[in-house]
Amino acid sequence: MNVKMNKKESKTSLEGFKEDAPEPQGITEDKEQVDNDSNEQTVNRQPSTVNSTTSSKNIMWHEGKVTYEDRCKNLTQNGVVVWFTGLSGSGKSTIAVEVEKELLKQGKAVYRLDGDNVRHGLNSDLGFAKEDRDENIRRIAEVAALFKDAGLITLASFISPFQEMRDFARERAGEDSFIEIYVKADVPTCAERDPKGLYQKAKQGEIDDFTGVSSPYETPETSDVIIDTDKLSIGESVQKILEVIANEQ
Q1: Which residue, 134, 147, 179, 218, is the most exposed by fewest CB within 10 angstroms?
Q2: Is 55 a catalytic residue?
Q3: CA-CA distance, 93 to 157, in Å (whole number)?
Q4: How many other C-beta atoms are found inside a 10 Å radius of the C-beta of residue 69?
Q5: Is the dihedral of CA 17, 18, 19, 23 positive or negative?
Q6: Residue 88 marked as a ligand binder
Q7: Is position 91 annotated in a ligand binding site?
Q8: Domain residue spans of the chain
Q9: Who wins on pLDDT, 40 or 8?
Q10: Where does ATP bind (predicted)?
């Protein structure tokens, strides 16, 4: 296995499926404060695939002896972040679950990050105002970049409604190691699939800042793959995504 260095520049437009459940979002990252009174210089040494920024001059980057390339060689795969974005109910989580299962069958080291799940722990302190949504994605983007640096195939399923934060996630992972999947479905279709009745509650004013109803969703400008879930089945969607991931290995 060769460690991938250059990402193919082709973009894929796919068309997709009908059954799905809605999914919220979430994210939070803890910062460890390192007190080093004897050294106040800023150090820019960073791991090969994870960039970092900090406002403190007392926090140093501790370089290890195991590289990203070492991890990829050991796992016989390349680390990559596969970022699923789309409205609640579009099919992100449904597809990501199946992609994870199939990759595991192939012997791949893969982990799935889900918008609902992270709000039970890592991002349980966040709400759904724009500032919280941005922080939600910032934290998950950092986590996904770390997982990618570990050599994992990381599936991140988040509404991630704002282009700026999707671009941030791409930057953190690295252009050559990031696949953005736009899971496309319009609001009426997503509302029909909604078993929790969230869209109806949002329209009735019972839920604030609900994407697609009372909060905007910015259609992706830079997606590597577009899956229209009105047309493709779940199985067809999964197969197309597996093919794209395989091209990155």
Answers
A1: 218
A2: no
A3: 6
A4: 15
A5: positive
A6: yes
A7: yes
A8: 68-248
A9: 8
A10: 86-93
pLDDT (average), residues 152-174: 97
CA 58 to chain centre: 30
Measured CA to CA in angstroms, residue 51 lies from 22, 60, 141, 156, 222 at distances of 32, 13, 12, 19, 21
Assign a CATH topology to domain 68-248. Rossmann fold (3.40.50)
Q: How do residues 104-145 score in pLDDT, each as one tens digit?
A: 999 999 999 999 899 999 999 998 889 999 999 999 999 999
Does 126 belong to an annotated binding site? no
Say whether 177 counts as a known binding-site residue: no
Q: Provide the 10 A C-beta neighbour count for residue 235.
A: 12
Catalytic residue among 10, 38, 160, 177: 160
Q: Give the chain's radius of gyration (CA, Å).
A: 19
Please say if the pLDDT value at position 194 is more than 60. Answer: yes
Is there a binding annotation on residue 240? no
Burial of 79 (0-12, 13-18, 19+ CB in 10 A): buried
Token code pair at residue 178: 């990031």
